[in-house]
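Study this protein:
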Amino acid sequence: MTPSSFEQLLQDSKKLTDLSANSGLPQFNRDLVQIANESYLLSSRFDTKQELNANAHYFLAQGGSNSHEVANSLKKINTSVIFKSSDMIKNTNVEIQRALESRLRDQLHSNWKDQKAQILQDWDQQDDNTMFGRTHKGDKESLAYKKRVSSYQSTIRAFNNSRILHEKVPIFSQFKTTSQSAECTKAQRKSLEDAWDVAAHIANESDSYVDKIYSKHQHDPIQVAKTNRLLINRVKCWLEQQYLDVVNKELTFGAFQGIGGSPSVLYRMNAFSKMMGRKLAGSVYLEVKDETPIWLFVYILVRVGKLDLAYEYVENRQAAFCQAPAFLGFLKEYVHADNHRLSEATRQRVCEHYRMMDYGNNQVDPYQKLIYKIMGRCELHLKSVDDIEMTIEDFLWLQYTLIDEDSQSEVDKTDSYRLLDLQRTISAHGTDYFDSKKTNPWYYFYVLVLTLQFERAISFMYTQQPFRLEAVHFSIALAYYNLIRIPNDLLKRSRELLIVDSDGTAYFNFGRLIKEYVDLLGDDVENTALEYYCLITLYQSAEMKSICYGYIANYIATLDDYKRVIGDLSTYQTGSIERLRPLLGIGQSDEEEYNREVLARVANKFRLDNRYKDTVSIYLSMGDNDNALSILNHQLDLAIERPMSVLLGHTHHSLPSSDQDLINYCTSFIQAHQSRLNTTLLRTCCSLLLILQACVAYERRDFESALLSIKQFNIVPFEGQDMAAVLHYGEVYKSSLDKISKKHIPGLISMIVEILSLLYKNAFDQSMRIPNQDQRAVFVEQYKSYKEGIRSTMAFVGIISSDIQPKILKMLLEKTTGLC
């Protein structure tokens, strides 16, 4: 640097602010002695032997500041003024306001979600009556739809009969036959029939044993992986057989072109490979030996599942594969290995050969690359091989050969490829990819079934109105083999059909689907709804059974002639549900469980709908007389509530009911079952019955009958009794009267006072108008007795005043002022 630069730096440094305001020491131009002395003074202010820590004065001292001066200055500051706390201004707590708004918003969205689901469901059921393909296009369409529904109902009824007898049912085959009545295009029919066939093969329907696939451990990862491997093998087997059928059809057609010879599989596959080789000639490089595209031929053998024949062919034609000398060893290990999985060392060698073919300069047969990819599961991020055109079946077959559902493999491995990964890929493409013209929804459904996405398949087809009937019954067939996953917390998801977890695993609300279908069956003369509800117990979990019982109970409660279903005890007639009880998991002799799970639910539904006679009838059929009597007591209580509320000046919104009908019913019930009833409940019923009779007579202005019923009740004195008698009534009230009757005593007293006051006024007026002394004496005697009755009643009020509201006491006193 030049001298002028140093001079400028000196001048600028003089302008800097002092580090310590009161030190009086110059900050610059100090010699070494001064700096040493000041450093010594600073260092002497604290103990250098003590460990350094985060205290503020240590930090300041080490930085060259006067920590003592700073501390003293801080002590002089009046913090009580500077940091004075301010009172919270009302309505300005932003955090609470935001939290409240957030909760309200979440609650609103939650409520709207439920309401929207209900609105959409109701709209779907009513809008032009189009649910499940029903339309108003004409009588032909309506008749065709009813015929389809009837055909499925007959199949379901026969299916349930077989279930009762524990017989295996080829349900996929039966539904496939029934679905022939559905109106489909040729392409739709082909996809629909293929879907039935592949589902039947996955379920192993040809076996005599019903394999409940997901009935147990559906949430256990190890068991799920084991189940997935089983299902993948079944789908692969079906795809291989389908491809073999295609080959045979091509060869049969080719027979007219001169292709014939030995019917052996090896010969026919060789002939087919030559046919394909000629079609691909010029567009794809094929390695041909003795007029046979050898790698294509090996692929075809592997594609139809004939691995042993492929190995036999390569072993016998080693010269043809001289350019791939290690291939025979790779193929041998692949064919004989468990689950056709190479050892890790061999797999790495196969992948090395694959990369050499993929990135080398030599021309390679694409089918050779494909075979190496299959054996070594190479480059799993690439789902196929270039230059090879594949159908969707070929593609899915290839994916199933690459998928490894080994539960011990790590998820983060680069060679990890699971069924869930394939399912995500297919779902991501969606229906627009597989049915871009929207002409064949069954094709996408078929692809979903092939990829074992039964839940998404049913959910998708359920959105296609013309084929909802088939979608529902396809789900029933899948449920028979427990191929549909059911969520654990199903009761919390009662409105959702398809439930997808965070990892992409799909579950289906099978019970809800059955419920929606039954709701749209219309007139159910033959109780077909019961047949469908019993399908819910195809899943034997306690939760599914509870849902089934609830649906059945709600359905029975909607029927006017419900005894046709549950039976009639009075006529010893059995109900139609008796035949289906084994399907509900309830034995014919297990009456306790049947009463608890079905009849009690029906009774509760009747009770909520205020159908007390039907509720009592259900309890009587269960042999539960006490509960039946409790229902009558509750009904009497409700009936008394209305007139009592009017008497006490309260608002009551219920309309007058047929109280006399209730009185007659309760009277006949007591007469018929008195010997079998609980004494306490019976006493309550009799008390409430007398109170209601008094209310009915009072509303008819039949005061004498009202007082007669109250007298029979024998709790409230009103006939001029002496004080000892009144005290006795008070003791009876406190010791023996039930709670239900007690709550109506204030209203009953108000009624007595009202009646006696009116009778007193009438008698008094009569005595004043009649000139005859003898006749007048009769009326005088009457109004005096009424006055004494009011006094007795008010004395009783004084005894029980703690049980009467002050407002009512004041009203009673106002009414009786001058009469007591």
The longest helix spans residues 221-255. The beta strands are 288-289, 292-293, 498-500, 506-508. The CA atoms of residues 528 and 749 lie 55 Å apart. The longest strand covers residues 498-500.
